[in-house]
Amino acid sequence: MTTVLTTGPGLRGGLGESVRRPDGGPKARGEFAFSSDLEAEDMLWAHLLRSPHPSAAISSLDLSPAFAVPGVAAVLAAGDVPGRQSFGLDYPDQPVFAGKVVRHVGEPIAAVAADHPITARRAAEAIAVTYEVTEPLTDPEAAMEAPPIHERGNVLFHQDIVHGDPGATGEVSVEGSYATAMQDQAFLGPESALAVPAGDGGVDLYLATQWLHVDRDQIAACLGLPLDLVRLHLSGVGGAFGAREDMSMQVQLCLLAMRTGRPVKIVFSREESFLGHVHRHPARMWYRHSADADGNLVKVEAKLILDGGAYLSSSPAVLQNAACFAAGPYRVPNAVVDATAVRTNNPPCGAMRGFGAVQVCFAYETQMDKLAAALRMDPVELRLRNALRTGDTMITGQVLSGAAPVAEVIRAVAAAPLPAEPGPSDAPEIALPGGAGRTAERDRVRRGIGFAVGFKNLMYSAGFDDFTTARCRLEEGRVTITSAAVEVGQGLVTLMQQIARHIFGVADVSLGEATTAGIGSAGSTSASRQTWMTGGAVEAACRAVAERLVSSVAQRLERPLASLRLDGGRVCSDDGAVDLSLVGAASGQVFEETAVYRHPPTEELDEKGQGNAHVSFAFGAHRAVVDVDLDLGLVRVVDVTTAQDVGRALNPLQLIGQIEGGTAQGVGLAVMEEIVLDRGTVRNPSFTDYIIPTALDSPPVTIAGLIEEPEPGAPHGAKGAGEPPAISSTAAVAAAIRDATGLELARVPIRPQDIALALAAFEEDRQ
Amino acid sequence: MTNTTSVPELLSYTLNVNGRDHQVSDAELGENLLFVLRERLGLRGSKNACEQGECGSCSVLVDGRLECSCTMLAAAATGRQIVTVEGLTPSGDGLSEVQEAFVAEGAVQCGFCTPGLIVSVSDLLDRLPLATELEIREAISGNLCRCTGYGRIIAAVQAAQHARSAREALR
Amino acid sequence: MPVFVPASLEEAFAVLEGAPGAQLLAGGTDFMVEVNAGQRRPATVVALGAVPELKGWRLDGDEVVLGAGLTYTEMISPELAELVPGLAQAARTVGSPQIRNAGTLGGNIATASPAGDTLPMLMALGATMTLGRSDGGRRAVGLDELVVGPKRTTLQPGEVLLEVRVRAGAGRQEFLKVGTRNAMVIAVASAAVVVDFERRSVRVALGSVGPVVIRAEEVEREAAKLIDWDARRLVGPLEGSGDFGELVRTAARPIDDHRSTAAYRRHAAGVCVTRAFRRAFSSEESTAP
Fold this sequence. Notes:
The complex is a heterotrimer. Chain A is an alpha+beta fold. Chain A starts with a strand and ends with a helix.
């Protein structure tokens, strides 16, 4: 039995429309409460004391000077943690407080609560720690053989992929070594939270995170409390991009609140934020591509080393992704991938938008350009020739069953018109490389064009039980959707309303509080999964309520169920005899249904890296146009044009926002963004020195195509779009700079010196 | 030194914010204007994101000039006319022309940079209503946004420009 | 920990007489960064923002007198940019609109950062700074006498930087600043060149390539040899032999740090000075910022 459910004609705000986000007004008015905006009566402020050393033994720790500071209410350190001493997404190897050793700069050692944030900081600084500084292990290649810096060893995870015939050879082969630097998510809203002790011996934590329930589980374990006594409530999230998947201060803050019996708030400074969350793994990558004389790929070999930093975080999954996508969105019959994530005394690395796919994309797309050059083939043609299609087998042995419009995204971008080349004098000075610095000399500026394609999985993979819970309540004609899914800025709140409107045909859809108290997990807002997963759960919950509503009308009016339908906000019969509003149809009843949504199961990779590890994939292409100052090496990204495989555009405006924003983060990695490390110490933990693109650095993004090939199995055919736009813009910009300069440029970000000094040396050699 | 405002050990002073005098009592000297606005006056529309004047999330108008409140010593802001995002926001649920454009054009994602941008863009359009795209980009180069890549923000500023000129044409 | 907000210079001096070690506060854009980070905890602050004598600028004969409280935004104003275009060019590269509205010339000088954006141009313009004391004493110093090291000046306790004097319309002025972002970036290297056709002098100063601004006198001498002062043009090529850029690279004393490398800074300084000269002798008018 199926009930036909459709959005009624004339209803605004349904699927496919650029609906306004419900939190837009409050955010623009400055009234939306972010986690840093919270306050409570009698509230204390917390501060964490962090290690200044990447590797040291703590020989003594004296907290008494902090206690002596007037206004201090509590000082906690290792030994004050009642439950599990450590936490971690994959395995709890990260101490709440460093005990005998510190393994990275910024590792928390103690926590203070005081009546003023300045007092809390001064008290933390007063704590006397004696360190026996040891030589930090910072070279990821050396880490594999070096004495372990943690009882679980220095190899965090290893993944081999052996596909087809490892001995296969092609007529043409190209080889290269590549590197990507450590990138930071650099969200604007710093880590912040408010912990409130509860009368039942538990704690309520109001915070910005990406996954309430997994934070809750980890916090409860460390606090030694049952799950129901640790209640997490979502507060406003000022961006996430992966950095809020791991915990940063949750346990310490809850401990302070429980110790003092008072609400305790913490807000990281920008420096603490840089030191206090995981980053994108830096990668070292060796590649060899072999092809036949016509340009058909024969084999890809890759050796990948990802620096996971001091603790595990999500390194295994990031590494598996890097390995799975190492050959790019191409038909590669034979592949050998040797991928390792290692532990070092560098800052811990984990999730960041793109999650392992960004690093390899930079490498394999550079290889594709090299291969095209070796074959004397057009690079776009080479990519089209090898582009994956539905039904193809990937290097993990998985057959692509869903939509795979790789050739379509490539063609859309390649066909888009190029931006006008400015004449020698008509571009304003500030539009040239160097911008406000007035450095450019027009006849020393060269334009370059680069092209790249990338892809990534959607949702959790490799056998993970990935599910989402959502609830729908219909009361007096009003629909309320409740889910613990986290809105980080992407617009899930809009989409949940759109789905409910689509099903009920009513405009008024409210959203309940996102909390662990009273609803099950919605999974993480990551892996481009919420549109599909929470979208699926909301849809299922709404449909369940709608079916119950229609059934109740059928029963009440004694009409066959099949003769009734919910249409345009009314329950109607085919013969027109029944035409009830939602209020009338409900007849005083309240309907509430909770749905749990799961995507089709996946399986773990075997020892040869073979298996159906992923549910779905999204593809995208970027073309970058850059102007490069050949003498100074300064780069202006003039334009980025992209096409994305989106399945279906459920909210075009929000989709464009994801595409433009993701593209900009990739541009940042290509030309400026890098956590600069000096023997384990972060040299640039500030927005003065970790520079992200300003409005004068972010190029206009031209969307050449939103390829809408509905994904089988996905609710409404829509693919997640959070990460795919962030995969290939880095590679495209790098390729464009190569095109302008003729240099190899095997590392991102490409720094001015990488261009200018190389070209100057080349010039000198020629003379 | 009769006219010198002296703020003694226990810092208590008056700040004029959004046209109203506010008494600040028992403040620490090191408190910047942003902290005082947020934590002492409860005006949390201005956001804290960098403490270095690099991100613009805390932008306010001081005597009509756009500045970062995080690099202004609060006690030294006595005698200045300070306008925050709250002062640019209509009462009730309404939105200013700039705010409306930001919401309608998709310029708001996580929204953390939004209030600072509302202040910056309002200031820009008052000074330079016909700013070109490059002028807009330079004018907001001190307001970092990590979500949008600025595309929808530029679109919003241009929409606000159109709304403004349409309104003025009607007058 | 008192904060004083004097309403006149006289009052400022009166406060300083009682507390000569007080921290002077101008725009706060550097000082407050350190306070916010907990690196500075001054006992007494004298905020100079309300002192009218330090504000604005005026003409005094053929000199422009720039108040220490002159903001970067004011330096960019068309009226002042016409008189001191090089300073306007430098001011536009400083931070963001917010920073340029708050930050001041005096603050930039007294902060004495090796990357201070106005400092190379002040050096190239041969600016003099007037320092005042509460007893009415005044002394005039050049930038090299005032700024003697990274974040180190010869300002005495109780002394206030009052004004900066530069010649009005002093020839062709070019400031170029290299940073890894198109706006709001700290200089990796910068160069200021002033070619004064009336006085037939060339001055070259380099920023961010040493502990203080470096005046490149050897470069100036070599450059002067290439100038036909009557025709107001260059008689020889600036590069080709490579000597000119090499002289700049030799004059620079940069370091490796998280923002760049010494090698690149040297190289960039050479490129910037060469380009500045070429622009100074181009037929086009020097661009306002």
